[in-house]
Amino acid sequence: MFALLFAAGVAAGGMIYLRRSPVRDVQQPGTAAWWPHLALFLVAIALLAMARIRLRRRQHRRYRHRVRVAGGAPSDVRDQPVELLLLAPLGKPAGRRIRRTLRGARRSPGGLARLVTAGVVAIPLAYSLFRAGIQVLGGLDPNFTANAWGGPSYLGAMACHYLDAALIAAASAYLTARVLVPGPGPASSPYLDGGRTRSPAAPPREPTSRDQARGTPV
Fold it and tell me: How far does CA 10 lie from the centroid of its chain?
């Protein structure tokens, strides 16, 4: 679905380029907005760093809990890639959660309200992908990048617009992840599920001589 939105944006940008005007717009000073976008870039780096640190700590706690309670399989936690907090709803887990949300909408008014809310908060994510596609071919039109953020160059306008799109999409994706129905499975991330996962059951322990003497069930 995300690839289709981006492809539709590329097609729309191609139409803009084909209909470009031969009259060039005059570049006005101060419209590139490089300083605000430098600040946004630093904010984006800080958010990504915080997300990775937070998820590393949470995975480390889950790893230690599994080793202590279940005795094992450290690789099933440690070898998992660190899901970025801002990109939580993307991928196969999102597809499963969307299907669960759709099923819930048919069962209760609350499920329908959840579906509508998820659709509303996902609109900026969808538009950001579409807008990023437009920039690919639409940015070849000099008038498209004139007086634009990062303009008048093609690469400058693309850098600024992609930064804006990434931040908007990340915020929308995070909110969508909080609204969708949690996915099943103990391997699900709390950020993907919108809640904590169930702790694995402790394995049965071997009976000791004291248990056998007392007749204590294990």
Answer: 22
